[in-house]
Amino acid sequence: MLAMTELEELVLTPDERARGVRVDGVMFTMDWTGEDHPGQLAEFVAGRVRAFGIPPTGIDTTAVQQTAEADPALRRGDLPVRQLDHLSTVLSGLGCTLAVWDSGTDGYEVLVTRTAGLDPAEPAEPTGLTGLTGLTHEDLPVRAWGTEREETLVSLTCPGCSAMLVWELPPTETLADEHCDCGTPLFDATGRPMPDVTLHD
According to the model, what pLDDT value does residue 151 have? Predict the structure, then answer.
């Protein structure tokens, strides 16, 4: 029998673990532009909270959607961020955390973790974003929604050969003295881009 990972213990109920449910089976995938149908995200989150034996009080994104639709500054992709922000706040009051799996896509892979009251006899207490560090799924990070990614994405187009180059850097690493495969120097000894190098936003 495989040992349970810490993530599995946080996102799966004891019954789900006994039945061999995988983390992917309790994950909601949403495109960066939003839900396929209004209410899908809230329905998923409410279902996960119910699975943990907690009443899904306040888990509704209708008001968020209505407010966003009335906002003239709303841009494509803004609504899902507002929905995730809202649900994250609601979940923290229920002893849960909204988490995302940083799988490298431009979508959102959403999980709900139980962060308080793991013992059904123990009442859930608000926990905020604590306790979700160092978690991974398929060797990629899982983090609480609203926290920074552990890695920084750096991308540029080489001024020498026009190759697109991308790096994911842990917080402790730099691109000091990095060169393109064509030989063009890209960063100086301190990790600053060379004068003719422009980083992509």
Answer: 67
The sheet carrying 140-144 orders its strands as 28-30, 108-114, 96-101, 140-144, 135-137
Q: Average model confidence (pLDDT) for the chain?
A: 84
User: How far apart (Å, rounded) are the C-alpha atoms in residues 87 and 166?
Assistant: 32
CA distances 44 to 112, 142, 166, 195, 197, Å, are 9, 18, 34, 48, 44
Residues 102, 33 contacting (CB under 8 angstroms)? no
What's the DSSP call for residue 34? B
Its pTM stands at 0.69
Does residue 53 contact residue 18 with C-beta atoms inside 8 Å?
no
For the ranges 44-53, 57-66, 73-82, 120-129, the lowest mean pLDDT is seen at: 120-129
Question: Which residues, listed in sequence order, are joined to residue 144 by a DSSP beta bridge?
Answer: 99
Distance CA 120, CA 112 (A): 17
